[in-house]
């Protein structure tokens, strides 16, 4: 399920360039009205079967709107819009109710009466050309050195890592492994699509751009709701279908 958010900005909305933690905080704070739900989502999430990992099965887009950047701050004017998705319908409805009741607060700036659009769009295809709404982040961490390596779409292992991440998330959500994985291939990804941000003191790297995504329909729909790659609950991996394009 999807919740699309838009609100006007009477003056301006000023945020740090690395604002992912602020949007994530808005989501957790809004869910906190339901006793125990936010804490469970934040601390536990969903556990993958026999894989020792937990996933918060939601994702959100980058902020969209007229803006400029000054001194490592991004300044929005006129309006801002963004989107949250999750296979957890209850979570999305909680967010909608909280935003309608309390508005949305970015740090010290509160905006009342946001425009909210609740949708239940699903993917009914087994191959699609997609455009990233937030960067796809794929990495691995060396067990000995603890160093993290971020993969780029032109590396052979990138597609395998994306598929492996999907299997883990699917297993965490449904308690069983999917019958097959998925396949992703970069189509239009250039140097300008690389995205680097700082999240709570750590640098994260991802990629925007356009890709071909292939797999069983139910797998692609699951990824549409949860996001591609890692760090989905921190604002990575949301994509949209690029319309009127031939699928390769």
UniProtKB/TrEMBL annotation:
Signal peptide: none annotated. CDD domains: Cas6_I-like (cd21140). Pfam families: Cas_Cas6_C. Residues 126-241 form the CRISPR associated protein Cas6 C-terminal domain. InterPro entries: Cas_Cas6_C (IPR049435), CRISPR-assoc_prot_Cas6 (IPR010156), CRISPR-assoc_prot_Cas6_N_sf (IPR045747). The keyword RNA-binding applies. Keywords: Antiviral defense, RNA-binding. CRISPR (clustered regularly interspaced short palindromic repeat), is an adaptive immune system that provides protection against mobile genetic elements (viruses, transposable elements and conjugative plasmids). CRISPR clusters contain sequences complementary to antecedent mobile elements and target invading nucleic acids. CRISPR clusters are transcribed and processed into CRISPR RNA (crRNA). PANTHER family: CRISPR-ASSOCIATED ENDORIBONUCLEASE CAS6 1. Belongs to the CRISPR-associated protein Cas6/Cse3/CasE family. This is CRISPR-associated endoribonuclease. It comes from Coprococcus intestinihominis.
């Amino acid at each position: 399920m999807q919740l699309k958010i838009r609100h006007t900005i009477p003056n301006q909305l000023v945020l740090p360039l690395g604002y992912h933690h602020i949007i994530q905080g808005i989501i957790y704070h809004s869910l906190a009205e339901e006793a125990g739900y936010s804490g469970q989502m934040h601390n536990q999430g969903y556990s993958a079967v026999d894989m020792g990992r937990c996933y918060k099965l939601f994702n959100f887009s980058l902020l969209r709107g007229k803006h400029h950047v000054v001194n490592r701050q991004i300044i929005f004017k006129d309006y801002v819009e963004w989107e949250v998705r999750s296979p957890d319908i209850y979570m999305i409805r909680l967010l909608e109710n909280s935003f309608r009741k309390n508005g949305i607060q970015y740090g010290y700036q509160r905006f009342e009466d946001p425009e909210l659009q609740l949708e239940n769009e699903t993917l009914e295809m087994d191959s699609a050309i997609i455009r990233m709404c937030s960067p796809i982040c794929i990495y691995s961490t060396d067990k000995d050195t603890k160093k993290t390596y971020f993969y780029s779409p032109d590396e052979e292992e990138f597609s395998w890592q994306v598929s492996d991440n999907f299997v883990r998330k699917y297993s965490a959500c449904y308690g069983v492994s999917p019958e097959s994985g998925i396949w992703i291939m970069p189509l239009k990804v250039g140097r300008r699509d690389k995205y680097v941000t700082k999240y709570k003191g750590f640098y994260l790297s991802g990629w925007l751009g356009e890709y071909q995504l292939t797999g069983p329909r139910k797998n692609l729909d699951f990824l549409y709701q949860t996001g591609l790659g890692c760090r989905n609950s921190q604002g990575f991996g949301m994509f949209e279908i690029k319309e009127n394009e031939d699928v390769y």
